[in-house]
Amino acid sequence: MTTKSGIVTPTALSAMEILDSRGRPTVHVELQVAGETTFTAQVPSGASTGSGEAVELRDGDPARFDGKGVLDAVDHVNGAIRDALVDRSFADQADLDQALIELDGTPNKSRLGANAIVGVSMAAARAFASGAGHSLWATLAVGAARLPVPHFNVVNGGAHAPNPLDFQEFMIAPVGSPSYAEAVRAGAEVYGRLRARLAAAGHATGLGDEGGFAPDLARPDEVLEILVAAIEDAGYRTGVDGVAIALDPAASEFGSGGRYTVAGQAWTTNDLIDYYEELIDRFPIWSIEDGLGEDDATGWQQLTGRLGERVQLVGDDNFVTNPQIIEKAIADGIANAALIKVNQIGTVTETLTAMSLCRGAGYGAMVSHRSGETPDAFIADLAVGSGCGQLKSGAPARGERVAKYNRILQIAAQHRELDYGLG
Ligand code: PGA
Ligand code: ZN
Question: Residues with Cβ within 5 Å of ion ligand 2?
Fold first, then answer.
């Protein structure tokens, strides 16, 4: 065995190009240790990316997949990364991730590609877990493990759907459910009632990239009215003692320099904060992610000052799961929670560091999928093991989305000792 006392010695490593849920190429990694055990990982990909994200390497050859091929990233796994890792022993995840970071040698993983590096890092996490005789989630600890509140994205707009809706994500969060399984049930039931309401109102019920409906509506408050009605139709209380609402406007996509355009109206940062306040007064919203653009740091401080006591304010595009950036944001009084995407920073170790920082500062952390996904349910284990209490993985529909929710159903069934909820 090469995984004796937690040590992992890869004996083979390879990658290939596969498709993600949007029909775009992504990276599949296979890492083998002695005894012929193979551990795999598949890499997700965003559409509304933060400018500071670790670099996803795309070939840029217009003759293949409109330039979106990932053969260079695949070659880096099959070449430089394999040469550096195979037959070398690693004491733990941090040791292996450090080797990847040093091999890349750039601050943003642009040489080998974050899509190459993160796939290897995730596959290695599975090898370390197996070597230690643990489930993956048990090796991804930050605080005490718990079952997270699923945040189901049931209405899609912005960069994820071709409708006129500027806000990107309208999520339902069954915060008050008595168990994880009941939360999944609530999400699916509300989703069904929402489909019926939209259809009755003459809206198309086609789906956006994350499995939510994409109705031809422009005004966020109109969507929220229908959403509240759907929650009530399904027989649930609205709010944190039942089913609450979370938003990800992804404001970098509809504004810059403190100027925003929502439903055709031109707004300042202040106007937009006023609008959020109005929405919080009218609707059972408990969390707002990327309420302002990634370049609007002073606006973020105002937003946090005005609404930070009332709702969770999550940084995504501005934080990009980067421990250094999150540390500075905490010092600057920006937001009170961070979105956590493994491929935004590029290694499992740096992801766990970002989550530890949040925990230490009293900031929330929400583990997240990307709009381009695969059936790989790594983030389900991360959400449980880290104990952060929150996961967003799209709608309670579409295979690549429910793969994560279903993985946690499995963990919940096998580990009845785990608590459910925000924590
Ligand atoms: P992305 O969107 O995966 O397209 O970046 C998700 C998000 O903004 O949270
Ligand atoms: Zn976001």
Answer: 248, 289-290, 316
